[in-house]
Amino acid sequence: MPVSFLGETIGEQQTKIVRIPVCRLASGTALSVAVHVLRGSGDGPAVGIMSAHHGEELFTTELMRRLRQILLDSRFRGTVLMVPCANPPSFEAGTRNTPVDMHNLNRVFPGNAAGWLSEKLAAVIWDRFVPAIDAFLDYHCGGEDTEIHYTYTLDPGTPFGRTVHELAMLGSAPILWQTAHPAGSLSGETTRRQIPTVILEVGGGPSFGTDLMDRGLAAACRILRKLGVLDGPVGRGEARIVVREGGAVRPAHGGLFLPEVGHDALGTSVPGGTILGRVVAPDTFEELDVIRAPYPVTEIMMVRSRTSKVHPGEYAYILGDGESGQAIV
Ligand SMILES: [Zn+2]
Predict the structure, then answer these.
(1) CA angle 277, 279, 283 (to 5 degrees)
(2) Residue at a domain's end among 205, 239, 273
(3) Is the Cβ–Cβ distance between 291 and 251 less than 8 Å?
(4) The overall pTM is greater than 0.85
(5) Which of 103, 130, 231, 323 allows an S-S link to 118, with CB 3.0 to 4.6 Å?
(6) Ion ligand 1 — residues with CB < 5 Å
(7) With contact defined as beta carbons under 8 Å apart, do 294 and 276 qualify?
């Protein structure tokens, strides 16, 4: 059976790029969000996959390009609706927030068609993309100098929570984080709507050329098998621990960031007090901040792995409290 999306008909084993119109920008350029509608053979769920709410997150856009090719080379069921670049103005500028209004797209869902540009973008995604999907994979990653690797999960104590947790367990990340979604995030809203949703935080600029791309793609295929889109045995994810407490560690002062713990530590734990990185003044070389592992067992979920300029308050690390966690056996 063909499927229909925004008035376009996509037959079995066909693929179409359908653009959701947003508005005209000040330059007159038409802003739209491109959705790759990949229709497989036979009945199956409609799975939404999205990346680059935040324009500096290139790694998962490339992951999506490769995943699309894997799907096109496979026989699959149902429909995949893929949005590789959810925030085109932000991607163009290479910024986390949308340049025109400086809002964070992933904090303004479900959006407002009469609001700021970011809110208009959120509103079209919410009103036109979300109603078409039965499950949602929400990809995020680090920027030019940072890498991230963890998967959000929910308390498996309810049927919905168990569904989400089983999907999260199939991810590539050794660490799952059971925590509330940020207010105004698309995943928070799809979860509220009881659409099974997994946020996969995987990779970043320094991850190109590492095994994170292949691990991320293998995880996407496991999840798509679990959802009944791809055939074959689901396989086992890489989850090692679920942490319940954690958060971002941000430098008190800006400057030149010198990592001591980087890519190789992602997904592992270090003892409390381990020096993770330092901030020095670029002009005087004065040491302005020393970032240490805050928990007796500190789980490393995000690293600033490149020697880089850092602003005060930016992400340096995202860390979990290993003692709040539960090992996965
Ligand atoms: Zn993001």
Answers:
(1) 150
(2) 239
(3) yes
(4) yes
(5) 103
(6) 54, 140
(7) no
